[in-house]
Automatic annotation (TrEMBL):
It comes from Arachis hypogaea. Keywords: Metal-binding, Transferase, Zinc, Zinc-finger. GO terms for cellular component: acetyl-CoA carboxylase complex; chloroplast. Acetyl-CoA carboxylase is a heterohexamer composed of biotin carboxyl carrier protein, biotin carboxylase and 2 subunits each of ACCase subunit alpha and ACCase plastid-coded subunit beta (accD). This is CoA carboxyltransferase N-terminal domain-containing protein. One of its GO terms (molecular function) is zinc ion binding. Gene3D superfamilies: 2-enoyl-CoA Hydratase, Chain A, domain 1 (3.90.226.10). Residues 1-117 form the CoA carboxyltransferase N-terminal domain. The keyword Transferase applies. InterPro entries: Acetyl_CoA_COase_Trfase_b_su, ClpP/crotonase-like_dom_sf, COA_CT_N. SUPFAM superfamilies: ClpP/crotonase.
Length: 117
């Protein structure tokens, strides 16, 4: 997703459509964050899942380290935009490597079938 006024309007449309699917049609939405996940994806549909999964060592941020440091005029800690650090802060539900991801998703979908939203 490119940053700009058109993409910001698109982000709102995507978020609104996702809301319709999740709440009115009661669908299960799993968001998988790979490296890198930045910008509009982080600001919108990447963080709206019922379950949010990240891959190990994934770079996840709204803006890059340099942009944040220049904007806030402060230094941010090294590693503060890595999946493991963000998981400890509660940003998402799990860190799953790609190899077992298929099995984890299968279990989540089976659980959802047993206990629908």
């Amino acid at each position: 997703m490119q940053e700009g006024s058109l993409s910001l309007m698109q982000m709102a449309k995507i978020s609104s459509a996702l809301y319709e699917y999740q709440k009115k049609k009661r669908l299960f939405y799993v968001s998988i964050l790979t490296s890198p996940t930045t910008g509009g994806v982080t600001a919108s549909f990447g963080m709206l899942g019922d379950i949010i999964i990240a891959e190990p060592d994934a770079y996840i941020a709204f803006a890059g380290k340099r942009v944040i440091e220049q904007t806030l005029n402060t230094t941010i800690p090294e590693g503060s935009q890595v999946a493991e650090y963000l998981f400890q802060k509660g940003l998402f539900d799990s860190i799953v490597p790609r190899n077992p991801l298929k099995g984890v998703l299968s279990e989540l979908f089976q659980l959802h079938a047993f206990f629908p939203l």
